[in-house]
Specification:
single chain, 537 residues, alpha+beta, PmbA/TldD fold, 2 domains, eight-stranded mixed beta sheet, five-stranded mixed barrel, 11 helices, 24 strands
Length: 537
């Protein structure tokens, strides 16, 4: 679903099974008693065991979403949805089985658990290898809440609408031809229980304010765009209360931890006008300085996805693809993924990130681990039934389901490129570049099924000559492959936190999967650039 169709898309969501039903905004502030959730979970666990399950877990999920969609001076749609139900996953006769129900009553829950066991027993007839589940201690009754300062669902809708329309007005005043602005809110109230003895209650919040500006040149009919430099975050409404310390001043203002939407839209309108008359890049080799607002996507696609173990094992080959980072490369303990200063960490505890939770959807307490160390592939992302493949004593805690009605499986953690120790400004790193381009924001991209060959574009491009920015460019895209790219890595400076994509936030709209990242400003040496044009005949 294209971003331009979000008004219609949001209206449709309430009618899609699993996406929820429309509710009044105030309903989002209601909660379900934890004691009741424990009672219901025990019904499922007991029913599963009575039918022969050797392991069972149950997830009770209440998924709340709010979508506010505007265009220029109009509100296109406001949608509030709730999806509430229960999923049961079991092992019986050595095989997995899963069933779910949206009828939160004891008889329906017991039937769902019994159905899951029946499915597992049927699946077992096709087994070539029994499920090997890594051990996991039970935590008893515990809870985790996202450390938000202001629940975005408590903020009056009028205040949010006024903000978006104010953003639109500022962009139109600055010369934009069109602007769409949006605010997406998520609250996941998740309860997990298992026969291991865990009863885990979690309250997870996410927010994504964004906009898309278009400028049309009336003389030529050509157009340029500038999208928001915001990021989806695991935060509350405080994300929109930017403070001076949250801003990085430069050719455009960048944001870390908080976001000034009005300021960004005002700058965006001026920049999209400048892009109309900017010169096109001359194809060739350049040093690249990549801002975190751009680099998150390159990390996500070329590092995050190929280190997902289910992709490596071929489990996603029929849909999302495989990975060039095959097990033999990991077993060698010397596969050169990138230069020696490339260090990548998986981390589901990073405060404010989309992927941050206390426990994953298998009841494993979340943590962090090395994926790339000194440029060498040292690990992947694995869950309980994959841990034995990597000789791990336990899961790495990266199991996830986007809804109570979906079975949980291995999903990307926060994948973070570790920043260098030097503390330098953007200007400092640009001073060392003789011929290069500074890229800000994410744009169009493509990457092959094994996450090896790729090309990426951005939002803003600035030409660097002899250590200085000399003007804006357009139509820029760089081509490379994963090893070449990361072995061109020279410096990572100025640690900045950028969060992006978690499936629960973006899959409701455009079916993109996601994970958050942090990294420093990145310099790469001598990368191939191509001309990417938007001319419309």
């Amino acid at each position: 679903m294209h971003i331009a169709g979000m008004g219609t898309t949001a209206a449709m969501l309430a009618n899609i099974p699993g996406m929820g039903r429309a509710i009044a905004p105030e309903r989002a502030l209601e909660t379900v008693d934890v004691a009741l959730k424990k009672q219901l979970a025990d019904v499922a666990l007991n029913a599963a065991r009575s039918k022969g399950a050797t392991y069972a877990d149950v997830r009770i999920g209440r998924y709340l979403n709010q979508f506010i969609i505007t265009r220029e001076d109009k509100v296109q749609n406001i949608v509030n949805t709730e999806s509430y139900g229960l999923g049961v996953r079991v092992i019986a006769d050595g095989s997995w089985g899963f069933a779910a129900t949206d009828k939160i009553e004891k008889d329906s829950i017991a039937k769902a658990a019994e159905q899951a066991v029946a499915i597992a027993k049927e699946n077992s007839k096709l087994l070539t290898e029994r499920v090997q589940l890594a051990p996991q201690k039970g935590y008893g009754e515990v809870s985790w809440k996202a450390p938000i300062e202001k629940n975005a669902f408590e903020v009056p809708i009028k205040e949010k609408v006024d903000l978006l329309l104010g953003v639109n007005a500022a962009a139109m005043k600055g010369g934009a031809s069109f602007i769409n602005s949006f605010m997406f809110l998520v609250n996941e109230q998740k309860y997990f229980a298992s026969t291991d003895g865990s009863y885990i209650d979690q309250d997870i919040h996410r927010i994504w304010p964004t906009f898309f500006i278009t400028k049309i040149d009336s003389a030529t009919g050509k157009f340029e765009t500038r999208n928001a430099l915001s990021a989806p975050m695991g935060m509350g409404y405080e994300y929109l209360y930017a403070r001076p310390q949250d801003k990085i001043k430069g050719v455009t203002t960048l944001y870390k931890g908080r976001y000034d939407m009005l300021e960004d839209a005002t700058a965006g309108a001026a920049q999209v006008t400048e892009k109309i008359t900017a010169k096109s890049v001359e194809p060739g080799k350049y040093d690249l300085v990549l801002d975190p607002s751009h680099l998150w996507l390159t990390i996500h696609e070329s590092t995050g996805h190929p280190t997902e173990l289910d992709r490596v094992l071929g489990y996603e080959a029929n849909f999302a693809g495989t990975s060039f980072l095959t097990l033999d490369k990991w077993r060698s303990k010397k596969f050169n993924y990138g230069s020696k200063i490339v260090n990548v960490v998986a981390d589901k505890t990073q405060v404010g990130s989309l992927g941050a939770v206390g426990y994953d959807d298998e009841g494993v307490k979340c943590g962090q681990w090395d994926v790339i160390k000194d440029g060498i592939l040292v690990s992947y992302q694995a869950i309980r039934d994959q841990a034995h493949i990597l000789d791990l004593p336990a899961s790495q805690g990266c199991c996830y389901a986007d809804n109570w009605s979906s079975v949980q499986f291995q999903r990307m953690a926060n994948i973070s490129l570790q920043a260098g120790k030097e503390k330098k400004s953007i200007d400092d790193i640009i001073k060392g570049v003789k011929k290069g381009i500074y890229i800000i924001g994410d744009g169009s991209f493509s990457i092959d099924q094994q996450r090896y060959n790729f090309q990426f574009g951005g939002q803003l491009y600035y030409e660097i000559k002899d250590g200085k920015i000399v003007g804006m460019l357009k139509d820029v895209a760089y081509q490379s492959n994963t090893q070449e790219f990361w072995n061109s890595f020279q410096k990572s400076l100025t640690k900045v936190t950028i969060a992006w994509e978690d499936r629960s936030l973006t899959a409701r709209v455009n079916q993109r999967r996601a994970a958050p990242f942090h990294m420093g400003l990145l310099r790469l040496v001598s990368m191939e650039l191509m001309l990417s044009t938007q001319d419309v005949k």
